[in-house]
Predict the structure.
Amino acid sequence: MSASLALAAVLLSAAPLGAETPVPHPVRIVLDPGHGGAQEGALGPDGLFEKTLALDLARSLKAELERTGAEVLLTREQDVLLPLADRVGFANHAHPDLFVSLHANSMPTRKLRARVEGIQTFFLSASASGEDALRTASQENAGAGGAGGAPAQRDTLAFILADLQRGEAHADSARLAYALHRRLLASTGAMDLGVQQAPFYVLMGVEAPAVLVEVGFISHPGEGRRLGEASYRSRLVAALSEGIQAFLAEVVARDRAPAAASASR
Ligand SMILES: [Zn+2]
């Protein structure tokens, strides 16, 4: 275990200003394997489904992170159907330090499937970064139920979007997105499709830094095949694990700074 791993193994609780010693607690992480059960997600070569890939990555990442002392919970442990609202509810009940939803992307036409590949990392925004970000969000939001979700979900959505438009900062989600994305590219050599923002239902309402990673285009003949290989998957998992630890170490350092300053007065 490196020094940064040990540092990441504990986070400071929200101790009031001027408290003598902040209380450490184990890091808690919620991983969300996309889709499941009848919602198979995108389809790759040799019948590889996005739901299967996402669950496999989440299980491996859980094992990897648990070795650093973190407590890791999966929104689904098996190949089961799980509504998006339940994933959000599960995450908030767990009060995690961060939330990562795992997915693989796909293109609708043969021509685009042959051409488009690469990794994208998303954090929540009221407006999409572009056409492609919006397309991915609508694809992943399909599980919310109906075109725009149930009435209650639409109300929540409207409220959260309004909140975002009021300029609430999502700096930590953005920080987490960049921490993961950089390492994913370095570890895999995949095409860089950028850190993007879009209105993903599964990221809305999660009360923790939250990102959605599209680990690649499962529909691309080359990348789709790589996503089926164990060696490629372990590179993805290592990068995600390192990114999460780097993000947590950064948060610990930042949250310790004000306490140290007030103690020295
Ligand atoms: Zn998906």
The first helix runs from residue 3 to 8.
